[in-house]
Recover the amino acids of this structure.
């Protein structure tokens, strides 16, 4: 009478471990990139009130505010992933709103990386272009990845 084999052989177990290792090597960096993109997206969303304040000021006065407080907005942001918000008037029709991201990003990227929105004022509205700033473009939304930015109204 033959003895029936129960369970797995050592070779089978080694193959399973190798497959799990390969999958983990692919999945972990992809997950880290995904979580970093989520942090950057939250930082961009946190800029929205500042963008609205600047746009309202531009539409009512006809030029970009000298500073963000003139537009009626504070640089204090209540966001887990935003270290600071800054504003810079470029011309009477252009201004930048920039956020510095806090926390460690994927790949060991240090905190303080920036994402900017540049506002272009016209007679009836302000169009916003997104720029990666000092952040690696692969972590930004698709409309921030091209060289000229993407229009966000």
């Amino acid at each position: 009478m033959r003895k029936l084999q129960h369970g797995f052989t050592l070779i089978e177990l080694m193959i399973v471990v190798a497959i799990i290792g390969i999958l983990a090597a692919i999945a972990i960096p992809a997950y880290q990139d995904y979580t970093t993109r989520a942090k950057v997206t939250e930082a961009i969303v946190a800029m929205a009130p500042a963008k609205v304040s600047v746009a309202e000021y531009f539409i009512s006065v006809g030029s970009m505010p000298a500073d963000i407080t003139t537009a009626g907005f504070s640089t204090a942001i209540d966001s887990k992933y935003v270290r600071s918000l800054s504003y810079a008037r470029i011309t009477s029709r252009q201004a930048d709103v920039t956020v510095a991201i806090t926390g460690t990003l994927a790949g060991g990227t240090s905190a303080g990386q920036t994402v900017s929105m540049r506002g272009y004022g016209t007679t009836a509205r302000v169009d916003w272009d997104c720029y990666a700033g000092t952040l690696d473009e692969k972590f930004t939304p698709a409309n921030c990845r091209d060289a000229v930015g993407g229009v966000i109204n």
Notes: The radius of gyration is 24 Å. The domain at 10-152 is CATH 3.30.700.10 (Glycoprotein, Type 4 Pilin). The CA atoms of residues 7 and 116 lie 58 Å apart.
